[in-house]
Specification:
Elements (H helix, E strand, L loop, with lengths): L4 E6 L3 H12 L3 E7 L4 H8 L4 E2 L2 H7 L4 E4 L6 H10 L4 E4 L6 H14 L3 E4 L6 H11 L6 E9 L19 H17 L2 E9 L10 E8 L4 E7 L8 H4 L14 E5 L3 E4 L3 E5 L9 E5 L7 H13 L9 H20 L3 E2 L3
Helix pairs in contact: 4-5, 5-10, 6-7, 7-10
Length: about 350
């Protein structure tokens, strides 16, 4: 393995282009090849000084990369990941890991059987604020977790839906967006065991939902609520509050509330609320802002992927983590369809 890791990329869409730039900015790595059949991909490859291929098979026939990033449409993740795993190539697969829990399981099982490192692109876990929040909860500063609430409320413009696939089942906010929030809820609060949910397409009338609400029970006994809509004009979503991506206008709001017996935490404001004396509604309660040095989580994720490739670190977000998030999504879909409380697959 050379001093600079050779990383290949498949998928030159919005997130794929971002990965190409991140690889270029990572001092220990370099982009070695790009695969995407779209006409625009050739120009992106040329800008980075690398060859462009029409398919992953063509790329792998010409190159043996140290690592591969898969940033293609969800339905392609499983066959592409399996092809790379068969050659023993460490992977970073964009979220969701696949378009269903069943497909994700095939990826995870193949990677584990072959011993191939698999990192899933739930990049928010790499945010220093999330790392600090996890540490605060683990240290018991919130006491026993009791409840958590999350919101994904924003408005996607009409032209976002010009692409037909975005109006079809599987392209709504539950799978595309809410899966990020599910992963963070699991990461911060533990496994989700049961789900109740409802979905609605009343505003746009598409075949896919535009809004959803879910009620969770965690293995610890804590309860969670999560509402999602891409048709609400509002500032309460991770995209518009975390200041992670400059394409989203930043607000000074929060979108998560995590409550425990000894304190509560608002995120991504990073404010911890605790009583200054006795824990009582008659006693004062005061805020403390967590001291965190900001960093771009996608940049941190790229550096981590390189460490995973070199064998210096295990994946922070494993294939099992990606599968578990999809299992919760499957349970939400089933609960919304049946109106029944639904267990999450173990």
């Amino acid at each position: 393995m050379s001093a600079r890791l050779k990383i290949a990329l498949i998928g030159a869409g919005l997130i794929g282009r971002r990965h190409a730039d991140l690889i270029a900015a990572e001092p220990t790595a370099e982009l070695c090849a790009l695969a995407d059949p779209a006409p625009a991909a050739a120009g992106i490859a040329q800008a980075h000084g690398v060859p462009c291929y029409a398919s992953l098979n063509d790329l792998l026939a010409a190159h043996r990369p140290d690592g591969l990033i898969i940033a293609t449409p969800n339905a392609l993740h499983a066959p592409q990941a399996l092809a790379a795993i068969a050659q023993g190539i460490p992977l970073l697969v964009e979220k969701p890991l696949a378009d269903s829990a069943k497909a994700a399981a095939t990826i995870v099982e193949a990677a584990e059987a072959r011993g191939v490192p698999l990192l899933v692109g739930h990049h928010r876990r790499h945010n220093p604020l999330v790392i600090r929040a996890k540490a605060e909860i683990a240290a018991g500063h919130l006491g026993r977790l009791v409840a958590v609430h999350g919101q994904f409320w924003l408005h996607k413009p009409d032209d976002y839906f010009d692409a037909d696939w975005r109006r079809q089942p599987g392209a709504g906010p539950v799978l595309i967006n809410l899966i990020h929030d599910i992963d963070l809820m699991r990461h911060l609060c533990g496994n989700i065991t049961t789900v109740q949910a409802v979905e609605s397409s009343a505003v746009r009338g598409f075949a896919v939902e535009d809004s959803a609400a879910a009620l969770f029970q965690f293995a610890s006994g804590a309860l969670g609520t999560l509402t999602a809509s891409d048709t609400i004009s509002a500032p309460w979503s991770w995209e518009m509050t975390a200041h992670e991506n400059p394409v989203y206008p930043a607000t000074d709001q929060h979108c998560y509330l995590i409550g425990g017996t000894h304190g509560s935490l608002s995120l991504p404001l990073g404010v911890l609320w605790q009583h200054t004396g006795a824990r009582s509604w008659w006693e004062p309660i005061a805020p403390k802002t967590l001291d965190v040095t900001p960093a771009d989580p996608l940049t941190c994720q790229m550096a981590h992927f390189c460490a995973v490739i070199r064998g210096e670190a295990p994946p922070l977000v494993t294939g099992r983590d990606g599968l578990a998030a999809l299992q919760v999504i499957d349970a939400i879909k089933q609960a919304a369809a049946t109106g029944q409380r639904t267990p999450v697959a173990p």
